[in-house]
């Protein structure tokens, strides 16, 4: 009898665990958390200030997660440095990554993408009172980008006579530009707009020269995650159509930021197929 009682208890325990597992769908948002990768150091896009997260990438991530059934307090934001994004998705450290993550064929060999939710392009940031108004005006000028970036090399193809300046971070470039140590800085226009919209630099910088590259910011996913890809694309479409996309962009990158209207907001046909 004791053996039978123990067996019955064990069976009940297994049944309880099974029911609990069935009621805990990681994609339902019904009390579970979702881990989302973002940048912590890009003002206007992905930025961590104490326990607060701000930026356009963050706003899109919150909107998408909301449409997937998650409340804001169910989102765990995880710092996702550029060099670690693929490995974090492969390991399941995060479910999705919103971190100025450009969609490329090379990256698509390792991870999947939804989106894009924004199409950026390389541009140039100078002081508001600068006489530099185009790439041609950068002749003999000190132009900053971060170590390891190809931004200055891309720019040199159009203006070989510029003087490259390498700094460890874009924040250091922005500080040097403000102090007059350099004449310009270059990277994606959205990143530059984020710095320009910081309280410390508001009204002090301007974007010049238009854009001269195409960077499709996608949502990084684990390779083959078609279900999440479809959900993310549906949410992006809704964010654009209900006006939330435009509102988030202006709030985070500034009302004066002029994005490329030929590529933004992304149209349905521009989104990844989730194949």
Provide a descriptive summary of the structure in words.
It is built from eight helices and 13 strands. With 275 residues, it is of the alpha/beta class. It folds into two domains: 127 residues, D-Maltodextrin-Binding Protein, domain 2 (3-Layer(aba) Sandwich), CATH 3.40.190; 87 residues, Periplasmic binding protein-like II (D-Maltodextrin-Binding Protein, domain 2), CATH 3.40.190. It has a five-stranded mixed sheet with strand order 5-1-6-13-7. The radius of gyration is 22 Å and the shape is globular. The N and C termini lie far apart (57 Å).
Question: Any descriptors?
Answer:
transport; 275 residues; alpha/beta; Bact_solute-bind_prot3; 5-stranded mixed sheet; D-Maltodextrin-Binding Protein, domain 2; 2 domains
CATH superfamily of the largest domain: Periplasmic binding protein-like II
Order of helices and strands: HEEEEHEHEEEEHEHEHEEHH
N→C terminal distance? 57 Å
The CATH topology of the largest domain, please?
A: D-Maltodextrin-Binding Protein, domain 2
Helical residue percent? 25-40%
Count of structural domains: 2
CATH architecture of the largest domain: 3-Layer(aba) Sandwich
